[in-house]
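ESCALATION

Customer reports they have been waiting on this structure for their group meeting. Please prioritize. Original submission:
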Amino acid sequence: MNIEANLRQVHERVEAAAQKAGRDPKDVLVLAISKTMPVERVEAAALAGQVHFGENRVQESREKIPQLPEGLIWHLVGHLQSNKAKYCPGLFNWVHSIDSVHLAREIARRYKEKGKVCTALVQVNVSGEEVKSGCEPDEAGEILAALMEEDGTEPVGLMTMPPWDSDPEASRPWFRALRQLRDDLSGQGFSDSSLKELSMGMTGDFEVAIEEGATIVRIGTAIFGSRG
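Update from on-call: job pushed to the front of the queue and completed.
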């Protein structure tokens, strides 16, 4: 598998989707989702120039991250239980999956204790799908406000995961809903800096996500291949 070539193709697709939407491709961050991938594949991506990596589970990250080069930027994109928050400051620069005021305050406390600041996103379940994590859309403002109040967190935006569908177009309404929520919150007085990021879109639908305003796309399979 040629991970360097895969990365190049992903960036070409990002550029094409951004240009189609009249956007600057530099405004879209490719986050390589390395969950369940062996260290060797992640290292190959790092050697090819990839800096931002996403993991789903704290325990896997505790084993994997110390084996990889320093200087990489790690994002937690999976559901986080509050009792695992104590491990996050030593592992993750970003947490995308903050979905309650309680978790927001716990993350802030843990990062502040270590003299660090967590770049934080509020995960929103815009589709209402019961099996998905994330807060209700009408709870996002309260969580965002809690993150802004704390010294250990810097809120930068919203994240969502739409229901899986083989048709990328099926995700469009959910991406559009997250963008609309961002616009609504901005109108309620939240700062632009706290809402600048929209983390949405994966291998199967990231081009649609970019057309709808994504600033972070979470790409796993298109970079690393199948997880078997």
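Sent to customer with the following note: The first strand starts at residue 29 and ends at 33.
Escalation resolved.
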